[in-house]
From TrEMBL:
Protein name from the UniProt record: UDP-4-amino-4, 6-dideoxy-N-acetyl-beta-L-altrosamine transaminase
Organism listed in the record: Alteromonas lipolytica
NCBIfam families hit by this protein: PseC
Listed GO biological process terms: polysaccharide biosynthetic process
An example Gene Ontology molecular-function term: pyridoxal phosphate binding
A Pfam family hit: DegT_DnrJ_EryC1
Organism classification: Bacteria, Pseudomonadati, Pseudomonadota, Gammaproteobacteria, Alteromonadales
């Protein structure tokens, strides 16, 4: 089976990990700060706080944003459940903005309409989590221009988009238009640390809060501890109810080594996406927008004349590991129990019914990609 996504590990990645195992700290050594600095250098962000998954990154981002019971957080239905769950962890209410059927990212006109209704009802969201679906950045300049007058904090779920640029050519993570950007280093993402994530920000106070929440809510920062503790080197204090979301040095060493390959990975993904784009032009399907600045996490097509289930199962039988991204979050039983209904976000639902993700990852060979194209063409003929 040709998988839909797969990590690529090089010998230098392996030696980076074994070096840590043989001589370093396994956790809380120098690898995590070095990885954080490398993420800042790459993206241009002022601060990076590494954590043990993209999901924990989303959680601490919400906590640092002050999201709590009584608040509302908006995101899109076309994402992994973690994009919404993070607000629920904080006790907040979640609501969704439908997607643009063309980009499959948040629809800015739906956002404008919903914001005016929310303002009239005095229910403006505390934060909005936008998702750069498949690695193609949302138009953050346009979104921040819409949300700024309402004082809404913007969080980018950039789990798909490390290595991408926004339409103004800012690197995703630079934080030009948002408060925080969350990354994931799960093996199917742009780079991997096995499990891992990070939150990027340009705000020193948010960075301190993120760090605090990722490690039990505890700080050893002398500036926060008060004068009476300055000669007590053992002293630390817990100010918030935090978590152990720390990344280990072993994982950070892998992530830091992988980051050196990021630009090559993204270039390889783009080259493969272009091959699909040309090869599929005559088939009865909608191709994704060929965004040259995307990180190309996914290559998903939308079937226009065929039953998705039949095509999915036929391709799996033929050894093509197709997948589907995403089951709209509001259709999951957990969110249905909260009162969400099918039909509420028609663009996300329509897209989901017809979506199919084709294999795309840096090590996908030309032969394997030709096989995917051949099998898909046969199944659709
Ligand atoms: C992968 C992913 C996450 C969660 O990241 P983990 O590292 O797996 O916890 C969150 N949001 C989106 C859009 C993702 O694709």
């Amino acid at each position: 089976m040709i998988p839909y996504g797969k990590h690529t590990i090089f010998p230098d990645d392996v030696s980076a990990v074994t070096e840590v195992l043989e001589q370093g700290f396994l956790t809380q050594g120098q690898q995590v700060p070095a990885f954080e600095k490398a993420l800042c250098d790459y993206t241009g962000a002022g601060y990076a706080v590494a954590c043990n998954s993209g999901t924990s990154g989303l959680h601490i981002a919400c906590l640092a944003a002050g999201v709590k019971a009584g608040d509302v957080v908006w995101t899109v239905p076309n994402s992994f459940a973690a994009s919404a769950n993070c607000a629920r962890y904080c006790g907040a209410e979640v609501d969704f903005v439908d997607i643009d059927p063309h980009t499959r990212n948040i629809c800015t006109s739906a956002l404008v309409d919903k914001l005016h209704l929310a303002a009239a009802a005095n229910k403006v969201p505390k934060a909005i989590i936008v998702v750069h679906f498949a690695g193609s950045s949302c138009d953050m300049a346009a979104i921040s221009a819409i949300t700024e007058p309402f004082g809404i904090l913007l969080i980018e779920d950039a789990a798909h988009a490390l290595g991408a640029k926004d339409p103004q050519m800012h690197k995703v993570g630079a934080g030009k238009y948002s408060a925080m950007t969350v990354l994931s280093f799960h093996p199917v993402k742009s780079i991997t640390s096995a499990e891992g994530g990070a939150v990027l920000t340009n705000d020193e106070d948010l960075a301190a809060m993120l760090r605090c929440y990722a490690s039990h809510g505890i700080t050893r920062d002398p500036a926060m501890l008060g004068d009476e503790h300055q000669d007590e080197p053992w002293f630390y204090a817990q100010f918030e109810l935090g978590f152990n979301y720390r990344l280990s040095d072993v994982h950070a060493a892998l992530g830091r080594s992988q980051l050196k390959h990021l630009d090559d990975f993204v270039a390889q993904r783009l080259a493969l996406a272009k091959v699909y784009h040309d090869a599929l032009s005559e088939l009865p399907l909608i191709r994704p927008v060929l965004d040259e600045n995307s990180a190309w996490h996914l290559y998903m097509i939308e079937l226009t004349q065929h039953d998705r289930k039949q095509v999915f199962n036929a391709l799996r039988q033929r050894g093509i590991g197709v997948n589907v991204h995403y089951i709209p979050i509001h259709l999951h039983p957990y969110y249905q129990q909260l009162g969400f209904k099918a039909g509420q976000y028609p663009h996300a639902e329509h897209y989901y019914r017809r979506a199919l993700t084709l294999p795309l990852f840096p090590a996908l060979t030309a032969d394997n990609q030709m096989e995917v194209i051949k099998q898909l063409s046969e199944v659709l003929s």
